Give the backbone structure.
Amino acid sequence: MSDYNQRLMEEFRANAGQVGGSWEGRDLLLLTTTGRKSGKQHTTPMVYTRDGDRLLVYASKGGAPKHPDWYLNLVADENLRTRVAEKTEGVRSVILALAFGSLAATQKDAG
């Protein structure tokens, strides 16, 4: 894990989910997955959107052609934990959409 993410998570935990800097005012959660190879717990800070009772996160690796590791982990094991503010919950993931490249190719093929 990067030092940046570690500091961000420490600030999140110390301030009931509130952080400053470029993340100030954004909806941020901590997502904990189980490593598909190691079996170890991995926590990642990320922005989310609410959809009713559901929390939506977006599997993006900054425009890279590969999925982020946390996404590959949740594909392998849909059981994970989220922490929003001071509340931690066990949740089950559901993958809602195809990768943008796949969607764009499908739309192009459709004419």
Notes: The longest strand covers residues 28-34. Strands lie at 28-34, 41-47, 49-51, 54-56, 79-84, 87-92. The chain has three helices and six strands.
